[in-house]
Amino acid sequence: MDATKHALVLTGEALPGFDANTVWPALASYFRMEPDRLRSDLLARAPITIKESEDLGKLRNLQDGASTIGAVTDLVAMGSEGNMFVLVDGTPRGPVPHAFVANRVRSGAWPSSISVAEVGSTNWRPFVVPGASPAAPDYDQQATVAFSTIRGADMAPAQPAMAAAAPAAAPAMRMQAANPGPAPSAPAGAVASGQLPEGGIVHAGFWRRFAAYTLDSFILMVPMLLIFGLLVYMSFRAAMSGEGPGGLIILLYFLAYIGAIVGSWLYFAKFESGANQATPGKRIMGLKVTDISGERIRFGRATGRFFGKIVTGIIPFGIGWMLAGWTGRKQALHDMMASTCVVFREVSPGKPLPTARPPMPWYGWVLNGLPILCMVIMMASYTWLIGSIIGAASTQMQDSSMSSGLPDMSGSGMPDMGGMSDSTSMNSGVDAQEQETVRNGLTPVFMEASMMQSEIAGVVDGGGECPTEERSSSNAWIESIQLGGVTPECTLTVRLSSSSDIPFAARIERIEWSYQGGGSWRCQSSMSQDLLPFSCN
Q1: Reported pTM
Q2: Which of 156, 152, 139 is nearest to 90 (CA)?
Q3: How many CA atoms are closer than 13 Å to the CA of 18, on its beta-carbon side?
Q4: Among 11, 147, 8, 133, which residue's Cα sits nearest to residue 70?
Q5: Distance CA 312, CA 320 (A)
Q6: Which of 201, 349, 334, 361 minimizes the C-alpha distance to 268?
Q7: What distances in angstroms separate CA 485 from CA 439, 452, 459, 465, 512, one per listed residue?
Q8: Which of 176, 206, 418, 523 could be stapled to 536 by a disulfide with Cβ–Cβ 3.0 to 4.6 Å?
């Protein structure tokens, strides 16, 4: 084994006769990584060292496997100079060994004045070929479409980008490329002139943008809550005084909704097209909005971006928003429509691109969690509120039934209902526990009957005929509900279930109500009074 340490550099180019559209997916599979990650982490920064080792044979096997797929790699011996970043066409590339840069300069592939920065350094300087005198920087050669200054803290220590991703036995992973082309492809990761490159180092992803949007939403929510709270108070006062909402209040609601839309539009459009290119939420999260070239956008484009969110929002399952986590430039649907990008604050025209992605601040995760927490609290509150309303309604119906005669079960002088006996003269003879069980089970039955009585009384008092039909019920105690009678004396008959799930004393029994007019009902039952939850007969 050669004791000299070598580095395998991925150049980002495809071999002659291979199609880049098939080379890079095959290489991603060879390296056991996702194609998108290969593009953002390696190809966007190529040439880049993918593995360093003193085992030259292992590196050659890995190089052979990449060559079989169609990817160009370079195997170079590492000296004492270490690794460095290189500014190629205004974009930081690497890190790569010093010897690799020297070979490129000697071969004429790169100019002698190409700018480099050692890993961990913030200073860009012209590269000096060993044994040659320093050359003056060729600023015409270096593209000025570069972006943010590299900070020393952001530069990763000298380590290969693919130290663990490459397989140990490369020959076993060789695969044949498809669709060979007539000519070599262009270097992968190169971008159109003047456009921002892809990747998470430049562009902010979904969660950081979501945190910024959450903060902006809270800022906008404060005046909206004040305005709409005042309108709700005005409506409540009008209702308590017995008046309707009135035309003025309705107009104010309409104007408030229009104001909310206009206010949100001006908030986002003015801030994002302003000097800081960011809303307060984006500024706190270290973000800003640019066009695809990294330049400041105008108010018109910011307006289009804002209203494009309407289209983004109507896409099912939030897919239009989640595209910000999937696309190469982390663009949501409205960003694609407006040709805008949300980038990190350090990305600026005329400065080198950053080489490392800024970490998410702790308050960013807090902001991401707040909407989820609010949603859980709202769902719990909604569930509690509905339960309270149902409980209060049931209590009110029970009290109303007992006090107002709905159903009215205290009448006397009932006509003969066809063999149904007067329950007041009967005793069930069952024990107290079963009596309580029957009464509890019949309470919902009486409540359901009371609602139907209100419906029938409304029809008859309005001049209609008694409904004649049989209805079903989801209540397990009810076998059937029969509506009938001749106007105005409509009848409502409930037959209890024969199921063994209800106590024997209540099976196949009947309870019948007849309408007396004026909202008054009379009740008769085949059951003993001590089993009924309300007075009957």
Answers
A1: 0.44
A2: 139
A3: 24
A4: 11
A5: 5
A6: 334
A7: 27, 14, 13, 9, 11
A8: 523
